Amino acid sequence: MEEQLMTIKNEALSLILDAGDIKTLEEVKLQFLGRSGKLTLALKDIVNVPLLQRAEIGQLINEVKQSVEEAIDRQGEMLKNKRLEKKRESIDVTNPGIKPPSGHIHLVTHAINEITAIFEKIGFTRVRYPEVEWDWYAFTALNFPENHPARDDWETFFTTEDVDSKKGSIILTPHTSNGQIREMQRVVKEQKGKGDISIRMLNIAKTYRRQSDVSHTQMFHQFEGLVVGKDISIVHLKGTLDYFVKSFFGENREIRLRPYHFQFTEPSFELDINCGVCLGKGCKLCKAGWLELGGAGIVHPNVLTFGGVDPKIYSGFAFGFGPERCMMMKEGLEIDDLRLLYSNKLEFLTQF
Amino acid sequence: MDIKILDSWLREHLETNAKPKDIAKAMSLTSASIERVEPYGSDFVYSAEITTNRVDMASVCGVAREAATVLPHFGFSAKVLPLKLTAVKNENKENVPLTIKVDEKLVNRICGVVLEVKKGESPQFIKERLEAAGIRSLNNLIDVTNYVMLEIGHPSHAFDYDRLKHHTLIIRESKKGETIVTLDKKQHTLPGGDIVADNGEGEIVDLLGVMGTDNSVVTDKTTRILFFFDNNDPWRIRKTSMGLAIRTEAAALNEKGVDPELALEALQRGVALYKEIADAKIISDVVDIYPHKPAVHIIKVTSATMQRIIGVEVPLKTSVSILESLGFATNASGDTLMVTVPTWRERDVEIEEDVVEEVARIYGYHNIPTALPPFTQALPYHQNQNPFYWETRMKEALKDWGLTEVYTYSMVSETMFEGPLENAITLKNPLDMDHVYLRKTLTPSLLQVIAENKSYDSVQIFEIANTYHKRKNDLPEEIRKLGIVLKGKSETFYHAKGLVEAVTEEMGIRHVTFRDTEVGGIGASVYRDNTHIGDIEVMDEQLVTIEINFDELLAHANMKKTFTPLPKYPPVTEDISLVVENNVKTGDIMDAVKKTNPLIKDVELLDIYGNTRTFHIVYLDRTKNLTTEEVGKVREEIIDNLSKKFAAKVK
C-alpha cells in the first residue's frame, strides 16, 4: 500500500511538472484528485487495510494528497505567470484604454451642487417653491409698489391666465425671492405655539426675465438665501457671504458690500469679491479690482410682515445670486456668451 | 442709470483734497458706485451708477453733496461749494402773454419764463462737459437745458415761444390714437394717458418729460424761447417712454421722481447761463404752478433698532452727525432720534430702516465685523425624504451610465407643445415665438437637442425639469419629470427599458411594470403598482424617448435595506430552453414559472434565438439540500404548466 502510494505520488508529481498549460494541469488534477481519481480511490481502499495500520496509512494518504495539491498550485502559479509574461509583450501602454460609459453633468448642476453643499455646511436647508407664481408672492409681498418698473410687462413674463382678485396675475418668477414669503409662511405655520422662528433657507430655482443678449438668457437660475431669527444683523450677512465666497472661490478672496437699492431689503447691498488675479489692486482684467456678484440686504419689515413674521421681534437677511454668474467667475470658465449654457451644443456640454 | 461727470465740474461744487481715485473709492463703498475714473484730456471722467431710488444723486450737485459727507470718513477734507443764484425778474416793461393750465392729477410743478435770446454755438467748456457726459452739443439754446439737467438734476425744455400759437400750453392726458412728430422727426401714435401739452387748439406741442415735438422746438429762426421745467407723475412718464421706446436722459430722470424743489433753482441757474452765453433778456414774469409739494416726513429712530440691524453699536452722536451732513434735520432725546427727511429724499426715506441704512452706509459696511449667524435650532433630517438628495444622486447615476445632462427652456413654440393649446399656460408677452407656451412634456425639447446635434451618431441625453399643468383658478401644477433620449443604439427599446429599471432600482422603488403602450406608437407604458408613471416611445430604429414622472419616483424612493439570512444549503440552477410562439410574452412566462412552486427562487431570461427562449432557473430550499429527484419534479411541473398555458415545448 505504501509503495503503491509512493508510485502514485511520483507519477503525479512528474505529470504535474510536465503539464505545459492550465488545461493539462486540470486534467492531471482530475486524474488524481477527482471523484474517481487515483488518490480518491486509494482513500476509499483504506477499508482493506488492516485495522492497526489504518491510522498510519490514512495519514500517509493525506500527506501524499497534500503534496500533490501543493505541486498543482505551484505549477498553476508558474503557468499563470508564464501566460502573463506573454501578455506583457503584447501590451502597448500607449494604446487607448477602454473606459466605462461616461456622460456629463451640466455646468449649472455642477454649480448648484457645489453651492448647496457649502450652504448645507452652515445649516441651510434647500427648498423648492413655484416657478410660475402669483404676482402677490413675487412682487406685492416683497414690497414692490404697484407702479414699480419690474412689474412692467417689458421686464417680467405674464401669462394669459385669469387674474385673481387678491393674488393678482400669474407670472413667471423674475427672481427666487417669492421663496422668502413662502418659506416664512410655512415656518410660521409649522412653529405656531412651538417656539421661536428660525429660518435658514436656500432656494435654488429657474427664473425668467424678458432679456436675451450675451449676458442674459430669458431663462436662468438664482439661488436665494434667507435667514430669519432674533437679532440677525448685517454682521451675520457679512459672515455668511464671506464663508460662501471663501468656500466657492478660494480662501484668499475677500468680499465687500456696496450700498444699493432693492425693494425687499433695507438696507440693501451689492456684494463684490476681489478679483482673483490682482486680489483687489486693479488689473487689466477687472479694472477696479472688484467684481460684482449679486444683491443682498436686511429683510424689509414689510416683507417680514407679509410673511407673517413680527418685525418687532425678528429680523433677517436675504441674498440672491446667479449660479451661472458664480460659475463663470471661476478660473478657467470665462464663458463669453451666457446663451451658450442653454444652447445644448454637445461640443460644449461634453467639456464638463 | 449711469451718469458721467468731469472731475473739474465736480470740483466747482466740491472743495476737497481727495484725488479722483479716492473719491471713486469712498463713494463706491458708501454711496453711489463709481465704477470707473478715467483720464479725459487733462481732466478725469467719473462713471457713476445711480440706483433708481437715488435720482437726487444723478447730477453734479447731487454727487458733490454726497461726496462732501462721505470723504471726511476716509480722512479727507471736503465741503460743498453752493451755487450763487439770483431771483429771475422780468426785465421787460410789459409782460409777454403766456398761459399755462395744468391737470393737477398729472403735474407736481411747472416753472417757466420767456427769454429773448441769440442762437449760436456754446462755448468750449459747455461743449466739453456735455460731451464727456455723452450728450451731443447742438446749440447754446438746447445745450443750456442739458447743462442744467446734468448740473442740478432737473430736466427742462426750450420751446420756440413764437411757434406756440396763442402762447398757451394746456397740460392734459393724451387721447388714444393722437399722433405727434417728436423733435427727431419720428411720428408716434400715442396709446392714451400720456402727459402732453396742447396749444389750445387741440394740437400737441410737447410730450412732457420725455421729448419735445417738432412743431414747437427751437429752429434757426428762433429769437424768443419759453424756458420750461415740468415735474410730473413719474409712472406715466415711464409708461410713455417705454411704450413708445423713446429713452431720453430726461425721461430716465423724470420716471424716477425728481425733487420739484429743484425746478426753480434750476431755472435760475439756466437763466444765468442764457444771459452769459445767449445774450438773454427776461421778458416775462416767472410762472410757477406748484400743486404738489413734497411731503415732510419725520421718522422716529431708536438706538436699539440701529444696533439690531447693524449688529454693532454706533454712538448716537455719530448718527446725528452723519444724518445732518446728508441734509436730514435731527432732534435727539435719550435713545431716540426724530429725523426730518429733506425734500430730495422724500420718495426714498420713509421708515426707520431707511434712516438706519443712511447711518450704516456712511459709518461704513467695511467697518462692520463678520460672524456667522448663531445656530440655535435644526429639524431632524431624513435623507430618504430629501428630493434634492435623490435628484443629485440620480443625475450622477445617469451620468455614470453614459448620459449627458441638458437644460432646455421651460417655454416652447406652438409646434413643440404637446396637446391642445388651450391646455397650455401661455405667455402674454413672449420675447419671441420659440418661447411662448409652458411645456407639459420634456420630450420635444430633448428631440430638438438631438436635431441640433445632427453630426453625432450616438447621443444619450437627459433632463430633470418641471412641467406645467393648468389648473382652474390656481397656479399650474408643477410636476418634475425625467426625460431621456437615446440615439444610435441598436435594440433601443431594451436599452430604454433597462435604463428605467436601473433608475427605479437605484431609487429603491418596487413594483414597477411595463405594459403595452397607451399613448399610441411603439413602446411601453411604465407603471408603479397601478399608477401610470411614464412612457417609453420608439421613434425609429435608432431613436427612443423616455419620459417619467420624477415626483412619482421621489414619492416612492426608498433607502431602506433589508437583510435576508444567507441560505445554509446550496441552490440548484439549471437552464431550460423552450420553443414558444413569438406572441407569447416573456414576462408572462416568467410569472408563470415563478408561481409554479415555492422552491423556485428566481427566473431570468438568458437568451432569445429564433422561437427559442432560454431561461435560467434557481431552485432553493432553505431547510435542506435539494435532491435531483425533487428538482426534477418541480421541473416537470414547470414544463407541464407552460405547455398548458403557452403551448411551450422543451427543446
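qc> The first strand of chain B starts at residue 2 and ends at 6.
qc> done
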